Amino acid sequence: MMFGIILTLFIAWKIYEYAYYKGESFDKLKRSLNNYIVSCNELNEHIEELKETYSEVRKINYGTAQLNDASRYNFKRKEQLKAKKSEYIHECSASVCKNAEIQPFKYLCKYFNIKSDEESLENFENVLNNFAAAEEGKQLLSNELEKIKESIKNDVPFLIRTINMKKFMLKLGFKVIDFSTLYFPVYTFRYVSPGGNKSTNCDIKLDINNLNNFVEYFSGIVKFKKSAAGQRALMTSKLREKIKQRDNYTCQKCELSTNDERNLLLEIDHIMPISKGGMSTEENLQTLCWKCNRTKGAKVNS
């Protein structure tokens, strides 16, 4: 009896839902929001592009192999069997693994062959700049979507917005926002015992906080050639905010500001690109909105 009632309600709901999404009122609402949908989806796409900027990412095919244990005492060596090869994993002794926990940046540079030069420093600064923009963009995009939901609340049937608002937003055409931080690279020091039954890992995740600290640490061991260390600003989150404040949170190209658009993603751009010899100095940095920065490419602004 109860099952029959539930089944009837479910079928009734599906018929109602189908009729609504095929109806004129939903189509009219979708058309009225078209510009917002396009803008939000473009920003979402831009954020995904920023996530892919880690300069050290290299996909290597290590081939395939199978470990067969034919030892006399039938040791399973389960940790050895679980251990996967990766350019982000360094097989080491237990003492190296422990020391990496104590001095992560020192051991990261030493064992993962990160050259202590200006080019590497600039690469990590660029990664930090883009990752910070991606994290900020995710939050701003989420805020914008919540604002849109609130503005159309009275135009959406109670059952639709109560039962499955997520499906409603997808039906409108908004793309799903990936809030995960899986794009932050993780370097691992791994010790596997000779018997293969025990392992220890030390993971160094280059998230925003660690990248800020790493850029500052790394600058201390770089032998500068293009400029003196004291004359060079480090592209950290602190500097990003300083440049935005200096430019009054206004895009220096289209002059759009956070006063005009509350959830505007502002990014820090090198006026003279690094690829053309530009430096991360305050006079070579400017605030651009994400659209202007996206279209600039490697052009030099006048």
UniProtKB/TrEMBL annotation:
Alphabetical list of CDD domains matching this protein: HNHc
Presence of keyword Ribosomal protein: no
Keyword line: Coiled coil, Endonuclease, Hydrolase, Nuclease
Molecular-function annotations in GO: endonuclease activity
Regions that span the bilayer: none
UniProt keyword Hydrolase, yes or no: yes
Any coiled-coil regions, as ranges: 33-60
Domain of life, per lineage: Bacteria
Domain HNH nuclease as annotated: residue spans: 238-294
Protein name (database record): HNH endonuclease
Species annotation: Clostridium frigoriphilum
